[in-house]
Write a structure and sequence with these properties.
By secondary structure, the chain is of the alpha/beta class. Helices cover 44% and strands 16% of the residues. It has helices at 13-23, 40-47, 77-86, 102-110, 121-137, 146-158, 185-188, 193-196, 206-214, 216-229, 267-275, 305-316, 320-336, 344-353, 364-387, and strands spanning 3-8, 29-36, 54-57, 66-67, 70-75, 91-94, 114-117, 141-143, 168-175, 236-240, 246-252, 257-261. The strands form 2 sheets. It has an 8-stranded mixed β-sheet with strand order 4-5-3-2-1-6-7-8, with helices on both faces. A 4-stranded mixed β-sheet has the order 10-9-11-12, covered by helices on one side. Strand 4 and strand 5 (70-75) form a beta hairpin. Bound molecules: NADPH dihydro-nicotinamide-adenine-dinucleotide phosphate (NDP) and magnesium ion.
């Protein structure tokens, strides 16, 4: 029987890569739901090769669309969540960008489906709740973020629990270092939007591309790894590896380090997540070692303060990771709108994190409230800066 798949954020970079994988695997998968956010055209274009899929546009102001290729039947966020529940999907790929991906992830798990998770904000904001919801319905979470997909597979192969809980010494999360890996702080002050959008090894959506240039992406991924693999963030070390061939490593207590390598092609981890724990021939990401040179460096926390701030947020725990994420989303949005400079991004996030974030019971409401307030405080900071 074919696995029924929902693709959330189908019109984005992860979504389009997922459709590419699915196009070549129609004997194994049936696409039952496709979602986009802003406009009908791109979503209808996605639907062309997958007739019969429910089409949902989550943007509240998105216009209904109906062309020869399909009909968009669900409009707005609530309708998207309802579509996830009614779609009958066995697995959903969540390629929605930002904090908006959290509620759809929870809807997938509550529906008893497996989650192929690209949306890192889901684990950053609410890992304990997400794990709880998954356990309640016995839903599985398969990481799609390339580093986490690598770690998932490495842990599965080398830490199956038979050696005791402390087999794992540390996770070595690789980072390309982004386009400004060797740039001085002085020069970073003058970085333009176009320069920050030019990632050296990966082609991705705009938000994550900016995050890669500040290394906030790696900061989010440290928190994501801690949440996915139930380790403290200080067990997750960042190793800069400019070629993006080693997708991550694990060091075991006997000193052995295991690594996962492939070409930087998101279709590979998407393929793996869609097939779950089965090892199925994959047409993507085959590595040729001829002339291949791999380099590794220490991350520079001084030039990339977003990395240090992520560890600080992870150490504080509770809603702090959600605050880090919310403030960063607001800061990046203002950089993308030319309202903030590149080096304002860490300034804004530090300012917001330095506020008092009271620790009450950790609930979905407290997380969403912290996310909301973090954006407001970031907005106030940006507005004040613009007045000057
Ligand atoms: P894109 O910006 O390319 O795509 C985002 C998708 O989400 C689009 O389909 C967009 O719809 C939809 N969307 C945007 N806002 C909302 C919203 N408020 N509610 C519901 N849907 C929304 O992002 P990426 O594909 O680059 O990234 C997606 C996620 O995957 C992020 O969390 C990112 O960190 C993670 N990730 C991405 C990687 C990559 O290679 N791109 C690698 C690893 C992780 P529309 O097009 O209509 O606006
Ligand atoms: Mg990644």
């Amino acid at each position: 029987m074919r696995k029924r798949v929902a693709v959330l954020g189908a019109t984005g970079s992860i979504g389009l890569n997922t459709l590419d994988v699915l196009r070549g695997a129609q004997d194994d998968f049936e696409v039952v739901l496709l979602s986009g956010h802003t406009s009908a055209g791109p979503l209808l274009a996605c639907a062309r090769d997958f007739p019969g899929a429910i089409l949902a546009l989550s943007g509240e102001t998105a216009k209904p669309g109906n062309t020869g290729t399909g009909t968009i039947s669900h409009h707005g966020t609530a309708a998207l969540l309802a579509a996830i529940t009614s779609s009958g999907a066995d697995i959903a790929v969540n390629g929605i960008s930002g904090a908006a991906g959290l509620a759809p992830s929870l809807a997938v798990l509550d529906a008893g489906a497996d989650l192929a998770l690209a949306n890192k904000e889901t684990m950053v904001m609410a890992a304990p709740l997400v794990r709880e919801r998954a356990a309640a319905k016995k839903s599985r979470i398969f990481p799609v973020d390339s580093e986490h997909a690598a770690i998932y597979n490495l842990l599965r192969s080398h830490c199956d629990g038979s050696h005791g809980d402390d087999t794992l010494e540390e996770i070595l999360l690789t980072a390309s270092g982004g386009p400004f890996r060797t740039l001085s702080l002085e020069k970073m002050a003058a970085v333009t939007l176009a320069e920050a959008l030019a990632h050296p090894t990966w082609s991705m959506g705009p938000k994550i591309t900016i995050d890669s240039s500040t290394m906030a992406n790696k900061g989010l991924e440290v928190i994501e790894a801690a949440g996915l693999f139930s380790v403290s963030a200080d067990k997750v070390k960042v190793v800069v590896h400019p070629q993006s061939i080693v997708h991550s490593m694990i060091r075991l207590r006997d000193g052995a380090v295991y690594a996962q390598l492939s070409k930087p092609d998101m279709r590979l981890p998407i393929h793996q997540a869609l097939y779950g724990d089965a090892c199925v021939p994959c047409p993507f990401g085959r590595l040729d070692f001829d002339g291949l040179t791999l380099g590794f460096e220490k991350p520079d926390f001084r030039r990339f303060p977003m990395l240090a701030l992520a560890y600080r947020a992870a150490e504080k725990g509770g809603v702090y990771p959600a605050v880090y994420n919310g403030a960063n989303e607001a800061a990046v949005a203002s950089f993308l709108n030319n309202a903030a400079a590149f080096l304002d991004i860490p300034r804004i996030v530090e300012y917001v994190l330095n506020r008092e974030w009271k620790e009450g019971k950790f609930t979905l409401e407290s997380v969403l409230d912290a996310d909301h307030r973090a954006r407001i405080i970031a907005g106030e900071y940006i507005a004040k800066k613009l007045e000057k």
